[in-house]
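User: Here's a structure from my thesis project, written as structure tokens. My advisor, Dr. K., wants to see whether a designed sequence matches the one we expressed. Can you design one independently, without my sequence as a hint?
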């Protein structure tokens, strides 16, 4: 069992175990010993990023690794450049959608693919090895990496001349590249969230708080909007009326426009998406939550498309991990190809009312393993009469997530609140 790695690397509040410089140095050494080769390294805009970057680099250099430092760059950009530079691995210092006081470290393997659980377990095992200096470590800055990633994205961009687009970079890793990307593709861009100060990443903006972006689209009369999260691997949209379009809408749009036969979602994917796809003859699979599990299921089932409601979307023929910027480009291309407006797809996909309650707990694993939990879930589903309940520990925060959906919104909210209270009492 892994002690430190969650669904998306090692993450926590900076200054508290495990997210201390001392641990990150040891983690860098262990990762370099396990991954064995040149490493590309990027980070987001958090104030703690340079400190943790220095610690991670120190550990990797101690283990004799060659490190290519990219600076601030979206996570999928680091994954792409790991392959482009021919590196054996990639690393990103980011806590994605979390508040600024959190940070984390995640790794990619050769070609930019996310590491399997087994590789992360081996890195944890390598933490126990005694420290030993190895010659050969070398650090090189690679500021040209952002331009290289931008050219890669532009190769997938449709002609956006005449498109009026609100872009929300969440004061995160896309703050420079996102406005430039869409402007160079021809769009008229109104950008927000492009002034990071180290503490405002994800604050009131971005893929987890898209309401400001959506409101601006409607108020300014723009065609649509897109919001990215702090590390740039998610994209959430808004149509011209200011209505939010999630990853479920993106999956439905692409499945219909391209004519796909298989799509992978997760336990959090809305029942409305599953029913709509099956009416179109599209097989729908539910992977565990986490885009790396989506990628694994896509490969296993031979599905060309997969993703999560949170905005992680993977296009198997383009790249093997979620990329918010690429998702936005391909979605704009699909709309142009089909001659439709995003509002048409928001109208077409009827989603069940869904409520997610985050229950703060001291020991999330203990709560989800409690013998009373299964009975509580059965009771909740019985009340919904045709709805669905999912309870899972967050892989990135000290909370248990309760998802409830069903045909009647008032009942869904009532059941979600009752179940959340019951879970909190299990401690």
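Assistant: Designed independently from the structure alone:
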């Amino acid at each position: 069992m892994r002690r430190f790695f969650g669904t998306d690397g090692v993450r926590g509040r900076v200054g508290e175990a495990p997210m201390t410089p001392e641990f990150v140095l040891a983690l860098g050494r262990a990762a370099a010993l396990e991954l064995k080769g040149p490493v590309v390294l990027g980070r987001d805009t958090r104030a703690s990023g340079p400190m943790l970057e220095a610690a991670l680099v120190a550990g990797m250099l101690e283990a004799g690794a060659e490190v290519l430092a990219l600076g601030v760059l979206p996570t999928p950009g680091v994954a792409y450049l790991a392959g482009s530079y021919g590196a054996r691995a990639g690393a990103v210092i980011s806590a994605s959608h979390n508040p600024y006081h959190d940070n984390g470290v995640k790794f990619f393997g050769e070609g930019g693919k996310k590491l399997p659980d087994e590789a992360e377990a081996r890195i944890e095992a390598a933490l126990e090895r005694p420290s030993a200096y190895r010659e050969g470590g070398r650090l090189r800055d690679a500021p040209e990496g952002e331009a290289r990633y931008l050219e890669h994205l532009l190769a997938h961009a449709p002609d956006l001349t005449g498109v009026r687009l609100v872009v929300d970079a969440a004061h995160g890793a896309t703050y420079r590249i996102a406005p430039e990307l869409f402007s160079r593709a021809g769009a008229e861009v109104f950008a927000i969230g492009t002034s990071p100060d180290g503490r405002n990443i994800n604050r009131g903006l971005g893929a987890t708080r898209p309401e400001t972006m959506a409101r601006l689209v409607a108020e300014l009369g723009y065609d649509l909007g897109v919001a990215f999260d702090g590390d740039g691997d998610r994209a959430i949209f808004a149509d011209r009326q200011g209505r939010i379009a999630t990853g479920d809408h993106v999956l439905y749009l692409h499945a219909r426009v391209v004519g796909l036969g298989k799509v992978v979602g997760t336990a959090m994917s809305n029942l409305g998406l599953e029913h709509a796809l099956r009416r179109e003859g599209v097989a729908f699979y539910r992977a565990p939550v986490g885009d790396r599990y989506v990628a694994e299921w896509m490969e296993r089932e031979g599905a060309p498309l997969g993703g999560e409601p949170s905005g992680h979307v993977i296009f198997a023929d383009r790249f093997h991990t979620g990329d918010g910027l690429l998702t936005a480009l391909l979605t704009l291309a699909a709309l142009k190809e089909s001659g439709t407006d995003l509002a048409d797809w928001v109208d077409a996909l009827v989603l069940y009312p869904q409520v997610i309650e985050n229950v703060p707990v001291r020991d999330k694993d203990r709560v989800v393993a409690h013998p009373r939990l299964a009975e509580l879930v059965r009771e909740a589903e019985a009340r919904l009469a045709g709805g669905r309940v999912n309870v899972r520990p967050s892989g990135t925060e000290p909370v248990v997530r309760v998802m409830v959906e069903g045909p009647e919104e008032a009942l869904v909210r009532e059941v979600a609140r009752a179940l959340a209270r019951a879970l909190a009492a299990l401690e």
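When you compare it with your expressed construct, this may help: The longest helix spans residues 409-425.
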